[in-house]
Amino acid sequence: MKIPITQSKAWAKLQQDLSETSFLEQGSGYHYLAILKSTPVGNYLYLPYGPVFETKSGLENALKSLHNLAERHQAIFTRVEPQSREFVDHLPSNARKSPDLSPAETWTLDLTGSDEDLKSKLPSRLLRYYKSAPSKGITIRESHNPEDIHYLLDLQKALAREKGISTFSEDYLKTELSQPFATLYLVEQEGVIAAGLVFDDKNTRYNLQGAQSAAGRKLHATGILTIQLILDAKKKGLKSFDFWGIAPEGAGPDHPWAGFTNFKKTFAGHEVTYSGTYDLVYDAHKYRLYQGLRKFNRLIRR
Question: Per-residue confidence at 221, pLDDT binned at 50, 70, 90?
Answer without folding.
Answer: very high
